[in-house]
Amino acid sequence: xxxxxYPGARAELAAAVAALLDAARAEAGASPPAPVxxxxxxxxxxxxxGPTAAHVFARxxxxxxxxxxxxxxxxxCRAPGxxxxxEDGAFHTPLGDVPVDAPCAxxxxxxxxxxxxxxxxxxxxxxxxxxxPFLQVLRPDARIVxxxxxxxxxxxxxxxxxxxxxxxxxAREPILLVASSDLNHYEPAAVSVRxxxxxxxxxxxxxxxxxxxxxxxxxxxxxGRGPAAVVIAAARALGATRxxxxxxxxxxxxxxxxxxxxxxGYGGVVIP
Length: 272
Description:
This protein is α/β, with parallel strands linked by helices and about 270 residues long. It contains 9 helices and 11 strands.
């Protein structure tokens, strides 16, 4: 996805991520990054969602191990339980390779029958890759466990969240949970802002069941609602009591409001 969602040249990409992080830090003030259990960050092109993702990662003191959950945009899924895992090797960006943590991946497979090795679901999926340069700049030793979810069903989300919470509790090091998600898609700005607020209300209440029900009932086209529901449920099981929206914007902002007829919303959330 390099050259499309983010710059394709190493130096240009590093400079772009650094500039986004610097701007986010300037807006956030002098507060240093703090440990968090989980985050939700958007995955569109950097011109649109990059500032929101930067606000998330600038506030989080990142551990070296990160479990990343993304929606399945392509419809390709060969994992019987609908949770596609890349279990070993590395993901590549122009900044280099990000290794997959094979022991943690194996622990997650053992913890949940929903999780299966499925490389095909990852090959054309951008929602994890777009976030990796932020990890590479802030935490060059980062290792990941990448998951692509093909469903948005609460029963499965709760089951996977319980498995994730067990893996985090039993790990010998801190683990950050990351849900990759944009908010409402391709409606007028006034409509999207309202729908995005409704989705974020459920997120900040740490209510994964309500998030999925509300998206379905109110036709909120939040692409990563499944990953977000899993992550907030896992964070709650791990003791989280709140979620903070650290940035919100939509794609119409890039045009200065010149085209607000079909926007996509972006929300950045940290869960301490």
